[in-house]
Design brief:
alpha/beta
Length: about 600
């Protein structure tokens, strides 16, 4: 790899002497320099206005990387900044007159022109002609682009004006409609939003009137809504035939003599099959290679497939994800491991700003189907035990979020995603690696579909919606409730993004008329998200006879020890008491208060 650092001496407006040790990044990096006896980085420093120096430096660094696999850092110094960082950050505000004069003298284009003339590559007249032609091409391109852009706006304006005229003729005359029209007509280049607003205001003003023109305006607005949805809000996820939601379900198959193994062994068999099946699959992360990850999901696979396909990394979560993005963009199928869910905080910015929006911002032109593997939920202590799903869900729309309750479900999700062209975050349940599961015969082929909840326990009195590690706790609570005659339906959503695409949960509400959303996030996190999806998106509120509730962890990090875990997070008794009290409200005779 060749990394270049282009240094203009400032961090936006802050000079290097205030934020860079020794003022010079090259001096800071000296400890990384390779020598004849020690591995390291090849370090270079070159001036940004030195054309020949740049060619020689980048050529040498590229050859080292390609031929000897030696990484380099090129510090490009003495860069100028012709414009400010933003429209409000003009560099005249913070640079001295001497610095601004120097930048005029050492502007890269000016120095390039001097080099061409000094080396007699072209004479003054030729350069003047080239610059004039370049300026002409730029202006013509700008004008052509502007015409193409404004053509749509002009057509929208024309159609909107005609509709406003027709509406006024049909219902009017109305001064207010004429005012909307005149304001729109006076705008030489109205944005799309301004035509939309003019027509919406006209409909509001005539809301008590009946008119065929109003019907035409509503149809026009609907058509523009569809266009604008496509132009501004489409392609968050893949829309191709290989999209994850199009992967067909293949059920796990078991022989009569299926082995019962630790959950970690189910995952290990899944990853082994994936690496064997597809040479593009590779995996990397902290402690992933030599020891096979801290929970042994990759045990023995580095030895079997080599260090280039199952590799260890240093502790650097954000660049682990960045490494995955680069590999995926180039056609590989990376599994990038973040050791614990809590550590996702260190890379959430990279996931949000870079990975989640790649497909969206290019309208599907670029795809980076990275699989980010991590583990979380139930653990006794302040660290490695968080479940910040609300933060995750609100930050990474564009990446699917899969929350399997056990390792068989996790393996099915890995198989599904490796068939797709979407990125995903797969959160394994931390305390389930040594729980026993049957090993499917088709471990490398079976798939679990996205957005399809699974009913773990059928019931008639109340619906409990949850996921991940909470599923076992919910099932425990359902047994406790059954012993007193309360029937709890337990639903594992399985994936949070996408969420219940066939509206399975609202069908349960039609039967039970009561619902509780439970998880290990803080209050207002993923439980609130699930409630919004079911009650608002699925119209589940229509079928409720009792107030919908959420059960969440306390609003602090989990406390230490088993007692800390019990009192910090939702436990089976919390679920029992909440469901019981809900039933007590409607049937206090059969279910009297307990406490």
């Amino acid at each position: 790899m060749v990394l270049s650092i282009w240094d203009d001496g400032y961090g936006i407006s802050v000079p290097n002497e205030l934020h860079t040790p020794k003022v010079d990044i090259s001096k800071v990096l000296e400890g990384f320099r390779r020598s004849e006896s020690e591995k390291g980085l090849q370090l270079y420093k070159v001036n940004g206005w030195d054309y020949i120096g740049l060619i020689e430096t980048f050529s040498e660094a590229a050859n080292l990387a390609r031929q000897k696999h030696i990484p380099s850092i090129i510090h490009v110094d003495e860069m100028t900044q012709p414009l400010g960082h933003s429209t409000s950050g003009s560099h005249e505000r913070y640079k001295s007159r001497e610095r601004l004069d120097w930048e005029l003298e050492f502007d890269c284009l000016k120095k390039m022109r001097e080099w061409i003339l000094d080396n007699e590559i072209a004479h003054q007249g030729q350069l003047d002609s080239i610059e004039a032609e370049a300026e002409k091409i730029a202006k013509n391109s700008k004008e052509r682009a502007w015409k193409e852009y404004t053509a749509v706006l002009t057509q929208d304006k024309k159609e909107a004006l005609e509709l406003l005229d027709q509406l006024n003729a049909d219902l009017g005359p109305y001064e207010q409609i004429a005012a909307y029209r005149d304001e729109l007509e006076a705008n030489p280049h109205p944005l799309k939003l301004e035509t939309i607003k003019a027509l919406k205001y006209a409909l509001r003003y005539t809301r008590n009137q009946s008119s065929h023109v109003r019907v035409r305006i509503r149809k026009w607005l609907k058509a523009k809504d569809e266009r604008n949805q496509k132009d501004y809000s489409s392609h968050i996820y893949s829309q191709s035939e290989d999209a994850a939601i199009n992967v067909k379900k293949i059920a796990a198959a078991y022989s009569d003599h299926a082995k019962v193994v630790d959950g970690r062994e189910v995952l290990q068999a899944c990853f082994d099959a994936a690496l064997h099946r597809d040479p593009r699959v590779l995996a990397f992360g902290e402690d992933l290679g030599k020891i096979g990850d801290v929970n042994q999901g990759f045990a023995g696979l580095q030895e079997k497939y080599g260090e280039m396909r199952v590799m260890d990394t240093s502790i650097r979560e954000t660049t682990i994800v960045g490494q995955g993005i680069g590999a995926a963009l180039r056609g590989l199928r990376p599994i990038a491991e973040i050791q614990y869910l809590d550590y996702l905080i260190y890379t959430i910015q990279t996931m949000s700003d870079d990975l989640a929006c790649i497909h969206y911002r290019t309208a599907g032109g670029q795809k980076a189907p990275v699989l980010i593997r991590t583990r979380g939920h139930r653990l006794e202590g302040v660290w490695h035990s968080g479940s910040p799903l609300g933060m995750i869900l609100n930050s990474i729309r564009g990446i699917y979020v899969l929350v399997p309750r056990n390792m068989t479900q996790a393996a099915g999700f890995y198989n599904t995603m490796l068939k797709s062209d979407d990125p995903a975050l797969i959160i394994e349940t931390l305390n389930a690696y040594r729980l026993k599961e049957r090993l499917p015969e088709n471990i490398g082929e079976f798939t679990v579909p996205l957005g399809e909840p699974e009913v773990l326990n059928e019931g008639t009195d109340c619906t409990l919606v949850t996921y991940g590690a909470m599923c076992r706790i919910a099932m425990d609570a359902s047994k406790q409730l059954a012993s007193v005659g309360i029937s709890l339906e337990v639903i594992d959503v399985q994936t949070l993004l996408p969420f219940d695409i066939h509206h399975t949960i609202v069908e349960s509400l039609k039967k039970t008329n009561r619902v509780i959303f439970a998880d290990e996030d803080v209050s207002g996190g993923a439980s609130a998200y699930m409630m919004q999806q079911v009650l608002e998106v699925q119209d589940g509120y229509r079928y409720l006879d009792s107030k919908p509730l959420t059960l969440t962890s306390k609003d602090h990090r989990p406390a230490y020890s088993s007692d800390g875990d019990y009192f910090s997070k939702v436990n089976a008794e919390d679920i029992y008491d909440t469901v019981y009290n809900m039933i007590n409200e409607v049937n206090p005779i059969d279910f009297p208060e307990i406490y």
